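Project outcomes to date are best conveyed with an example. Our students and postdoctoral researchers have been running inverse folding experiments weekly, and each run begins with a structure described purely in tokens. The record below, which covers 619 residues, was selected by the lab manager from last quarter's runs and is presented without edits.
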């Protein structure tokens, strides 16, 4: 419905004083303006209140605000002017990084058949006001700079969206200048204050969303606290049960042995002591598993990274399982590929992982065999513990890696275990940058595979890098101190080039990562043939030579290098497992500059390399 007299009749002023009719008309216009704005505010409040019921998506809720503004402004403008003057209202949005934007929200002309003309900028750019019409960002920005009467910039609802209010109009041909002036003034007030209301609503929306997000985070936090509390109660209940079982045996049989008048025969006496000892070991195992799991979860588990002789460690592990397997009549098998040599790992934790899986395999196998197979595959060293036991159903496999989850062994009289061994094993594998996988079928046995990377990653890589950074800080401090008292030693690029000749993957990667973190350019080769092919391509400041290579003796290579005019002055550091008396002298006699024994002391290696690199660049 149109406003009956929203604009005054054209009237003359008498002696410069406005007529009573003009004053009344202005009051009516102001009342109309406030009524329209109040209605707009009410509609916007409804949008904001509806958004508090749930947590809405930002785009959807902002869209409701924009559409409400478009509809209300369209109705207000077309209800206050003559039928011959029609308005269309739209919202244009653009991404700052994009060339084109779109008309996202738009109203239609009140009178069918009357087209809304294009909006033109001062430089002739056109803006078609229709839904989904594409528009150049630079055209909107140009109109904004021109302060175009049909384009207004809104406050950003998001840092990633730029928004404009756009209004197009068809004007009547018989409007007078006075009417145009008054209409433009009233329309300008309506639009300006509508934009203010819109921006306020958007700001309130952001506050509501922030509050809702905070409430959701608080609800999630409370749920997590409740879940943690349930896990704590479950942990305490399970731990209490597991501890009480062996303690009951220890206390009960000890009390029996100490009771006056009770004198069991020697065989029964030994049986009681065996039960006490077994219960004590079980209790110790439980405590150790709990402590290990707690330290892992608190990221406080201490690990010692070393070059591990894998075949030797595996043989030692099977020796510890041999007695249990023999008692059940099981055969133990060990298969290790010929190329498996060393691995950078914590030997104690690696042994712990293998023992956990091997004892489980023996526990759930009544007849047949249990084995350990070690092989390299896809840059990983894979330890597969297999058995011919009862197998694990898919349902139990899903629960197996949860703390205190245990599979009932129907063939065993007593189901021992803490339910923590597999959890600890899995997390120890992840600390090494690896994983634990399971394949099993009921009555067909199980295959547990620990995959550990041959190239250090995860905690191993982090430990090497941290050590290198600390050693570098120490060496730089010493260098700065000595440099203030003597001539400067300035390294150049060629002095940072190191040639590492080493066939063992673990040793090679350990030295490469450490020296690289110290700022050296390390080129690695794994045999003599590769060394001779690589030497003409680089100018190494130092050569690190392994003594035992697959295609030759490292000491013989040293002598060949010393006989070669081009390479005889390059410092060579022998790194070898030869650590017996006289081995160092043998290496030095062959022509090496320095000798370092395995396992490699990284800091000592770094000091040796730094010494020769500095000497080669002093001037």
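After processing, the design step wrote out the following sequence:
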């Amino acid at each position: 419905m149109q406003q009956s007299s929203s604009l005054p009749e054209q009237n003359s002023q008498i002696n410069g004083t406005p007529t009573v009719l003009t004053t009344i008309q202005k009051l009516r216009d102001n009342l109309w303006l406030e009524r329209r704005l109040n209605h707009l505010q009410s509609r916007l409040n409804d949008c904001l209140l509806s958004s508090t019921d749930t947590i809405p998506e930002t785009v959807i809720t902002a869209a409701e605000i924009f559409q409400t503004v478009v509809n209300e402004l369209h109705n207000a403008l077309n209800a206050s002017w003559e039928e011959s003057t029609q308005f269309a209202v739209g919202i244009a949005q653009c991404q700052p990084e994009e060339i084109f934007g779109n008309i996202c929200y738009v109203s239609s002309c009140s009178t069918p058949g009357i087209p809304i003309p294009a909006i033109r900028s001062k430089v002739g750019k056109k803006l078609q006001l229709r839904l989904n019409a594409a528009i150049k960002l630079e055209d909107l920005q140009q109109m904004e700079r021109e302060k175009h009467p049909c384009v207004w910039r809104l406050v950003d609802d998001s840092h990633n969206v730029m928004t404009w209010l756009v209004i197009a109009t068809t004007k009547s041909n018989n409007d007078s200048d006075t009417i145009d002036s008054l209409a433009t003034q009233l329309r300008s007030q309506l639009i300006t204050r509508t934009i203010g209301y819109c921006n306020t609503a958007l700001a309130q929306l952001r506050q509501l969303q922030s509050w809702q997000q905070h409430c959701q985070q608080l609800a999630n936090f409370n749920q997590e606290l409740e879940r943690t509390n349930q896990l704590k109660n479950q942990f305490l209940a399970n731990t209490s049960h597991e501890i009480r079982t062996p303690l009951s045996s220890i206390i009960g049989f000890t009390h029996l042995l100490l009771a006056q008048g009770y004198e069991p025969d020697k065989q029964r006496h030994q049986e009681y002591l065996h039960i006490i000892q077994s219960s004590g070991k079980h209790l110790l195992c439980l405590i150790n598993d709990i402590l290990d799991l707690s330290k892992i979860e608190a990221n406080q588990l201490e690990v010692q990274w070393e070059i591990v002789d894998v075949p030797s460690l595996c043989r030692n592990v099977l020796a510890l399982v041999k007695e249990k397997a023999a008692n059940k009549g099981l055969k133990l098998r060990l298969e290790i590929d010929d190329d498996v040599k060393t691995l950078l790992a914590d030997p104690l934790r690696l042994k712990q992982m293998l023992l956990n899986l091997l004892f489980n395999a023996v526990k759930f196998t009544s007849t047949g065999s249990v084995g350990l197979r070690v092989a390299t595959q896809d840059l990983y060293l894979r330890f597969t513990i297999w058995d011919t036991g009862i197998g694990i159903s898919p349902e139990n496999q899903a629960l197996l890696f949860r703390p205190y989850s245990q599979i009932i062994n129907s063939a065993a009289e007593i189901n021992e275990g803490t339910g923590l061994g597999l959890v600890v094993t899995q997390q120890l594998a992840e600390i090494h940058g690896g994983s634990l996988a399971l394949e099993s079928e009921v009555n067909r046995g199980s295959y547990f595979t620990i995959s550990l990377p041959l190239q250090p990653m995860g905690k191993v890589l982090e430990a090497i890098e941290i050590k290198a950074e600390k050693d570098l800080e120490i060496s730089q401090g010493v260098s700065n101190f000595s440099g203030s008292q003597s001539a400067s030693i300035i390294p150049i690029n060629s002095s940072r080039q190191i040639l590492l000749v080493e066939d063992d993957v673990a040793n090679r990667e350990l030295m490469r990562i450490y020296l690289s973190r110290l700022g050296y350019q390390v080129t690695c080769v794994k045999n003599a043939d590769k060394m001779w092919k690589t030497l003409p391509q680089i100018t190494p400041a130092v050569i690190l030579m392994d003594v035992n290579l697959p295609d030759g003796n490292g000491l013989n290579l040293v002598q060949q290098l010393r006989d070669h005019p081009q390479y005889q002055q390059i410092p060579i550091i022998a790194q070898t497992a030869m650590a017996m008396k006289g081995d160092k002298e043998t290496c030095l006699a062959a022509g090496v500059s320095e000798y370092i024994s395995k396992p490699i002391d990284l800091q000592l290696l770094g000091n040796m390399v730094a010494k020769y690199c500095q000497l080669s660049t002093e001037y």
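The two ends are 95 Å apart (CA to CA). The chain has a mean pLDDT of 78. The training component of this project remains on track.
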